[in-house]
Queue: 2 jobs
Job 1
Amino acid sequence: MCDTVVVLSPKGVLFAKNSDRDPNEAQIVERHPAADHPPDSLVRATWMEIPQARHTHAVILSRPFWMWGAEMGANEHGVVAGNEAVFTDQPYEEIGLTGMDLLRLGLERGRTATETVSVIIELLERHGQGGGCGLERPSFTYHNSFIVADPEQAYVLETAGRRWATEEVRTGVRSISNGLTIPGFAETHSDRVKTRLSACRVRRARTEASAAEATGPAEMFSVLRDHGPTPRYRLLTGGMDAPCMHAGGLVASSQTTASWVSDLTSGLHWVTGTAAPCTGIFKPVRVTEPVDLGPPPDDRFDPNTVWWRHERFHRTVMRDPEAAFPRFEAERDEVEREWLADPPPTDEAFEMAERLARTWLDRIGQVEDRRPWWVRRYWAIRDRRAGLPDAKRPAVADR
């Protein structure tokens, strides 16, 4: 489950997205340079090969480690995009392009938001969308919606199978979540049960309200960190009622595994590269500069990877966020204010963020887990699956 929001104002265009996926589904921030390709060459997406374009633009992406496609990203021409899972009345194809594949292909081939939307539509109609999209449940699949923006314009693109609808965002705030929203298309094609279970309407209302006064990236950071004073968990769906999502439901559950904010006026993008924006720091990245964050992560704890090193801090904080947040939030916010005024190189920002997380972890110390029992159980199982060194083995069956 995810949320994407765009703001158009006289001051420019702002974009933000939380990528909500399975808790151990580490995400990679990576840059791919522009490239020319031989005639008749193919590109292997997540589940299928398709004809490659003769030229692909430079992109920077945030993608789940096991997918070819990306949850969110930007290209050298100032186009950004984010996708959402949506549930519809159209059949789900066993093999096709995933929404993440479509997003990456659109950014690699489109010079403007308009072109990028056209690329996605053309590929959708030709190849369809399908294939498994889940790590814990490999057969889990869905259709997709997108926000695509550049410094001049923004669009919502929603799909149901190979059908689609678009809406131009002319001014103000527009957000999408895990349900269709374009009038007429939504009423015709929504799967009402799954859409309601995703709590998308609740989150969409929160992101549109909180982004209404946004004038820069700092306010968009806050939009993505919103879960009220502390996360609240429902028995069936965990923390899915808020954009800063924390897993822990018995029926449906997702965790924000990476976050992204773009200021399209300056052309600077801000990424966490880690789970839970409330525990992470947004670091600047640029499409024009290489990104080298060390070895790529997977779904097993690896202290050599940026994403998993942060998980030790993130998962400690979430045992008792009410006690832990006050011990680091002010410093986190001050660092971001300094970086917004004078953005450092990407590698320096990531190094400093990691040093701070280690300091904050020492400051927090031992934390008693005060979450509801079902949330404790949920995370104990995921910690064990990931092989976290301090993971407790619960006296419960895996699920």
Job 2
Amino acid sequence: MKTYKFHIEGMSCNSCTVLVESKLDHAVGVKSAHASLSKHSVEITGDFENKSSEEIAKSLNELLTSDGYSISVEKQNFYKPKWSDFKIALPLSVGFIAFFLLLQKMGIVNLITADEVGYGTAFVIGLVASVSTCMAVVGGLTLSISANFAKEGDKTKPQIYFHLGRLISFFILGGVIGALGSVFQLGLMGTFALNVFVALVLLILGINLLDVFPAIKKLQPTIPKFIGKRVHGLKDINHTLTPFLVGIATFFLPCGFTQSMQIYTLTTGSFLTGALIMFSFALGTLPVLALLSFSSLGIHKKAQSGVFFKTAGLVVIFFGILSLLGAFTAIGIIPPVFNI
């Protein structure tokens, strides 16, 4: 039994470390795997007989390449961000933001308000989250459920149960968080502090999606990683209700986008408002996750993923700045920036 340390590429958040560890834990010969986001490495303990480190890395890569990760023996000394992606990502993000602001101006969607996150904002953030690497664990769960139940000839019902459980849990648990906010009576300054925190979380998430400042990844807040691993382990229980339970459990996965919405929901002080905010967020994630469930779509496998994630990152940064300005507007420090 020996311990090996490998360099790993492709991880962008703690959801990625959960997925990597869960994948490697099931590999032949592996006793335990511990991935580090800050060090971009993974320590693996196991019995690999007489294989060399290079041979071990090659065999383990076969488990991870389909999810966009790669293991190597030697660590890269220099990180080279792809600034050229911004030539396409910047105009795309500007066009996306302008389109939704136009819809808001026309009164078609309630995207943003001066002092609070609207249901439209939560929906859009859900859309972005569903195609970011922070949703790697949820995507992995949907594919695992598909594979497990497809062996028994049932390819549709498990997916429906999974997404139904996800939507129901986000509505009910979001309402519970909102109701808790009324119990604690946060007050004006407490609400302001949480709104600022949500804005900062969104800014950090957006910057991480740009993939140009690796050091920022250390600042991203998250719930304990072991919770995510326990949720991910539920997929191995072969029962009719397993997909439904896994869908419910995704509410507790270490996704920064989900947690930012949960924190904001606490400030609403209302069961209904909190429930609708979280439901709108979950509804935003539904199209891509459903497509992933039924077609094995993998956004991160595409050659254009760098441009895609940078576009998403710029959009999230916009919402982060907007939320920050909204927080200061709500307590009267600055006048409304957008009168729409």
